[in-house]
Specification:
Layout: H1 10-16, H2 20-28, H3 30-47, E1 51-55, H4 62-73, E2 77-79, H5 80-89, H6 93-99, H7 102-114, E3 122-124, H8 133-140, E4 143-149, H9 152-162, H10 176-190, E5 193-196, H11 203-218, E6 225-227, H12 237-241, H13 246-252, E7 261-263, H14 272-276, H15 283-294, H16 302-313, E8 325-329, E9 332-336, H17 346-350, H18 353-360, E10 366-372, H19 376-386, H20 390-393, E11 396-403, H21 409-417, E12 423-428, H22 432-443, H23 446-456, E13 458-462, H24 468-487, E14 497-502, H25 507-517, E15 522-529, H26 534-541, E16 543-545, H27 567-574, H28 579-592, E17 594-596, H29 599-608, E18 609-613, H30 616-630, H31 636-648, E19 655-659, H32 667-673, H33 683-691, H34 701-710, E20 716-718, H35 722-737
Parallel strand pairs: 1-3, 1-4, 2-3, 4-5, 9-19, 10-11, 10-13, 11-12, 12-20, 14-15, 14-19, 15-18
Antiparallel strand pairs: 6-7, 8-9, 16-17
Helix pairs in contact: 2-3, 4-11, 7-8, 15-16, 15-24, 19-21, 21-34, 24-25, 30-31, 30-32
Pfam family, one: Thr_synth_N
Cofactor: pyridoxal 5'-phosphate
Family: Belongs to the threonine synthase family.
Length: 738
């Protein structure tokens, strides 16, 4: 990251910038002096000797916006086309295009850029400058590159209105749209700051967004994180001085006080125009734009982030749309989140997070990732971390704890089969809540974590949904689902939708709520539980009560959860970031097994959330009914959401049901729902039987391959005892890192 604030003392300014006569005049006219000082200070503190470099396709408005930005900063403005190329060539750019070939033009343009230098200026590039690597490397050395990202359809409309037919690369057989799409790869390679520019946004507004983007790029101090259990008013001077950034919370996972990390200033908001600019782009492009706003470039530069996102979603998902939206019936739509390598929504985060983690951690330390899973997280996190580069695998290992008897046979086979040289699964003779609570206690056990660091040079980190980075990719697919409905013509932008999600740990639901906060018009978030319906009771009454409750094993094991970790983040938000209240509530839950919300907080919660629950019998009946009428097979978790959606929706707007896993993972329950009398206990045989139905969607490719290759394999099993778990962790560290 460039650190380009350059504050100069006033005595230097008076000596070097103004004559003594001007200074006397200004001091005698304090208002005029203040205005001149403000103008000088704004441009010099923002730019220093650096340039603001505007980049984008032809028709993006670079020249106009550059002039406005230059006026606001009172600094030189340089247009590469007019002030450099045409001066160098003694002819217009259009004439040059007629005079030489496409390749020759790019080379001549690049040579001119290599000879150009400036400082403290606003520079508007030509649309084709970014296609010459050496030229861009030269100019980028002394500047912040701002990408004016204008939707392709808007650019095409503008160029048509201007009757511009001389575009570099445009030729018979190659359309303007093809040229613009081809160039995007070059723009994405070079930019530091992206500015979203809708079709009807005035140049003055875009110029302000450019300045805001540059300021954000320069100052990562604004994007810090706090614990849900820390209060701004109650924080000490030491706590305030120790700021935490995205890279810190990715590696640390859980706050030292037991709370969860949240951005201190909240999430970024998109305007309606910015969202609409994402309607026609791919899922990967949507992810890049949204995550760039949530992750400061000082933590992960935009170009690196784009590379990570492309790696995560480019080839690892079986559907080109990554997270397609499918019409089910009536006003119900399915958001299919099971096209990743391990067949559940967890793949969206866990194909991405390992690469974020590997980039953010210091090279001087080894890391062991601790994970607790109720089913789907296990195979997803094992698969994700196993795809790291070999050098990263040597310093990053992972252990996955799961309830030995609390997951489906196929889920267990997956977790065992996904073990690699740096990733292992350990079955625990207890339930998910024990596994999750044990990991939290291990993280807050400073004696144990300190011992691991000193003795083995190894730090612990978390990859569960308690890790902030796990939530961000989930925001993307909720936003993308809404944009897809707009793109399909189901709704117009601004029309509301409801969202129904099978919910256990509350992370997926929280991500939908975050998408709503960022500007997606979600009306109601509907929380769907199975018979472990503690969240349903809580949302209806405001009482979170674990007393007397025992976890019930169900056909939807991923939501067999009684302690919903991410609920803490949501309560911190609606409580106006009152960390003391959150601490009080969750200490009471830990010590007494219950807490109750104040009436005003319950009112806020019920404005956002509604809830219902579904029995196993109703779940199986829904699977049978949907298959009978549509030929589509729901998994058991999606069926829970379908039942609750049927009961709670008012049918005044579309409802998006999150289909969080592929039915292949729960074959015995699905076969029972389809009323198959005799069910073979072999998971592979069960999948072959399901495939004979030729249903939609087809059997999951990745799951089938995993079971074919690995069979049952071996894994460790341990007792539900903290000391036993810690002993396992120490042994794994010794075996892998020492």
């Amino acid at each position: 990251m460039f650190h380009i604030f350059q504050y100069q003392p006033l005595r230097l300014i008076t000596q070097n910038s103004f004559s003594s006569m001007c200074l006397k005049q200004m001091l005698s006219r304090p208002v005029a002096f203040a205005q001149i000082w403000k103008s000088w200070f704004s441009s010099h503190s923002l730019l220093g000797k650096k340039n603001i470099i505007l980049m984008g396709p032809p028709g993006a408005g670079k020249t106009t916006i550059g002039r406005i930005v230059g006026q606001k900063l009172d600094c030189p403005v340089i247009d590469i086309d007019d002030d450099v190329l045409e001066t160098t060539w003694n002819m217009s750019v259009s004439e040059k295009l007629q005079d030489v070939s496409y390749e020759e033009f790019l080379e001549e343009e690049g040579k001119a850029l290599l000879k150009f230098s400036a400082s403290g200026s606003v520079i508007s590039l030509s649309g084709s400058n970014p296609m010459h690597a050496a030229g861009m490397q030269h100019i980028k050395k002394n500047g912040i590159v701002v990408y004016l990202d204008v939707p392709t359809r808007v650019i095409m409309s503008r160029l048509k209105a201007k009757e511009m037919d001389r575009i570099v690369g445009l030729s018979p057989g190659i359309s303007l749209k093809d040229v613009l799409q081809f160039r995007k790869q070059f723009y994405k390679r070079w930019f530091d700051v992206r500015v979203l520019c809708g079709g009807d946004v005035e140049a003055e507004v875009v110029a302000e967004k450019v300045l805001d983007g540059v300021k954000r790029y320069q100052d990562s101090e604004l994007e810090t994180f706090i614990s849900t259990r820390s209060s701004r008013s109650g924080r000490s001077t030491e706590e305030n001085s120790h700021k935490l950034f995205f890279s810190d919370v990715v590696t640390q996972g859980l706050a030292l006080d037991g709370g969860l990390f949240v951005p201190e200033r909240g999430l970024p908001k998109f305007t309606a125009e910015e969202w609409q600019g994402l309607i026609e782009v791919t899922y990967i492009e949507r992810a890049q734009v949204i995550l760039e706003k949530c992750i400061h470039p000082a933590d992960i530069p935009a170009s690196k982030l784009a590379e990570i996102i492309e790696t995560a979603y480019g080839e690892n998902f079986s559907c080109s749309k990554v997270a397609p939206v499918r019409h089910l019936a009536g006003n119900q739509f399915l958001l299919e989140l099971f096209h990743g390598p391990t067949a559940s929504f967890k793949d969206f985060a866990l194909q991405l997070v390992p690469h974020l983690f590997a980039y953010c951690i210091p090279r001087s330390c080894n890391y062991l990732i601790l994970v607790a899973t109720s089913g789907d997280t296990g195979s997803a996190v094992l698969d994700g971390f196993s795809r790291l580069h070999d050098t990263d695998k040597q310093r990053i290992a992972l252990v996955n704890f799961f309830p030995e008897d609390g997951v489906s046979p196929i889920q267990k086979s997956q977790m065992i089969g996904c073990q690699k040289e740096n990733a292992w699964s350990v079955g625990v003779k207890s339930d998910f809540d024990f596994c999750q609570t044990a990991i939290k206690k291990i993280f807050t056990n400073s004696d144990f974590t300190g011992f691991l660091t000193v003795e083995y040079g190894t730090a612990l980190a978390a990859a569960n949904s308690i890790n902030w980075a796990r939530l961000l990719p989930q925001i993307v697919y909720h936003a993308s689902a809404y944009l897809d409905l707009v793109h399909q013509g189901i709704i117009s932008f601004g029309s509301p939708v409801d969202i129904c999600i099978p919910t256990g740990n509350f992370g997926n639901m929280l991500a939908a709520f975050y998408a709503k906060m960022m500007g997606i018009p979600i009306r109601k978030c509907i929380c769907a539980s199975n018979e472990n319906n503690i969240l349903t009771d809580f949302i209806k009454t405001g009482v979170y009560d674990l007393r007397g409750r025992k976890l019930i094993s169900s056909f939807s094991p991923a939501v067999d959860i009684l302690k919903s970790s991410n609920l803490e983040r949501y309560l911190h938000l609606i409580a106006n970031e009152d960390g003391q209240l959150v601490t009080q509530l969750f200490n009471q839950l830990e010590n007494q097994g219950h807490f109750q919300l104040q009436k005003d907080l319950l009112g806020k919660l019920q404005q956002d959330l509604v809830a219902g629950w579904c029995s196993d019998e109703d779940c199986l009946a829904a699977i049978h009914s949907v298959y009978s009428t549509t030929g589509y097979i729901l998994d058991t978790h999606t069926a829970v959401a379908k039942v609750v959606a049927d009961r709670l929706q008012d049918r005044t707007c579309p409802i998006i049901i999150s289909s969080t896993a592929h039915y292949s993972k729960f074959a015995p329950a699905i076969l029972r729902a389809l009323r198959i009398a005799e069910i073979n206990q072999n998971p592979l045989s069960q999948l072959h039987l399901l495939s004979s139905y030729s249903a939609l969607p087809p059997i999951h490719w990745g799951l089938l391959e995993t079971l074919k290759k690995t069979g049952n394999g071996d894994h460790q099993v341990c007792a539900a005892d903290m000391s036993v778990l810690m002993s396992h962790i120490e042994t794994l560290i010794q075996n892998h890192f020492m």
